[in-house]
Each structure stands twice: as structure tokens, then as C-alpha cells.
Amino acid sequence: GVDTGIKALASLSTGEQLGTDVESCIERIKRCKHGSRGQLRARRSLRQRIDEISRDVVAKADLLVVEKLKGICSKTKVKRRLTKNMRRTLGSWNVRYWLSRLQARSEDNRVVFRSVPAFNTSITCHECGHIERSSRDGVAFCCRSCGHTDNADINAAKNILSRFLLGPYGAEFKPNIVN
Question: What distance lies between CA 153 and its chain's CA centroid?
């Protein structure tokens, strides 16, 4: 399971976090004037870093399950859901490129690539299944029901993987248990 974020580009269900330096690349893009050479250089370095991280993620897995993040930036200005600064961050983030690189690398390396809905993955406890928004406080996750504590992104990655394995398409990937 792979949770995509800004603080850590890829948080894996194994407990690893890759791309913790991506946030500084995004901030560098935001500081540059729109369309300038400096911004283009910063975007190029972000894409290079995304390529490196995607290669590392695919090398560690036989199955990649990501969350569907289609439409994450759509109509945020119209609905005033996000502040201007957050909209600029999401615009500089280039999540579509990240997911396309992951998918292309997984196809090249014969790794199965699947996606699941992202609904409530970051506020659901992986241990007990309790859903509460106040359980997540920034990068820390502490379940209000069972007391389970973990990194919020790693907890979400575990939820993404279990959502796929317990869903309708996960049966082909479950190991055969012989009594």
C-alpha cells in the first residue's frame, strides 16, 4: 500500500517513508515567479526526484496499491474549499505525474498496479477500523477508540492495502491457506 502526500511523497504499508524532501522542492517552485526559468528548473528537479522515488518504490514491491486521487485540485477555487496558498501547493505538487510514473514503472517491472478509493483512509484506524476525524493530528495518528498510535501516512497506507485485499478484486492476491 502506498499513501501519497506532500510531507512524504510515498508512505509504504511496510513502515517506510520515501521522498521526505519533496516538500522543500514544492516550496521552491512556489517561491519562483510563474513561468520563469527558475521555476522551470525547480519543476524539472521535482520531476527528477519523483522519478527516483518511483523507481525505489517499484523495486520494493510485487503489488502496488495507491489511492485514486483524480480530481483532487478540481473546483477548489470555486467552492473556496482551500486557501490560495494550499491551492498553489497542490498545483505545484504534480500528483498526476507521480501516479503516471508509478504506473509506468510498475508495468515495466511487471509489478501489479491497482488503485482504491481514498475515502477516509487517513482517519480510519488500521487496528480496530474506528473512523474519527480527531484521531489524526498532523503527522501523528492516535485512535480515540483503541489507543493505537502510528504515523498518519503509514496508517493510511495500511488502510489502502487492506481495502484492496478485502475488496472484490483482492481475492486473486490472497495467499492460499491450506488446513
Answer: 8
* Closest to 42 measured CA to CA, from 21, 20, 27: 27
Q: pLDDT tens digits, residue range 2-53?
A: 998 888 889 999 999 998 998 898 889 888 898 899 989 998 999 999 999 9
pLDDT tens per residue, range 129-140 = 889 999 888 889
Q: What is the pTM of this model?
A: 0.80
Residue among 137, 141, 134, 145 nearest 159 (CA): 141
| pLDDT tens for each residue of 140-176 | 999 998 888 999 999 999 999 998 888 766 555 554 4
Find out whether 122 and 136 touch, Cβ atoms under 8 Å: yes
Per the CB < 8 A criterion, the answer to whether 152 and 139 are in contact is yes
DSSP letters for 39-61:
HHHHHHHHHHHHHHHHHHHHHT-
Q: How far apart are CA 14 and CA 139, in angstroms?
A: 17
The three three-digit cell numbers of residue 151, written as one number: 504515523
CA dist., res. 125 & res. 131, Å (int): 6
* Amino acid identity at 101: R
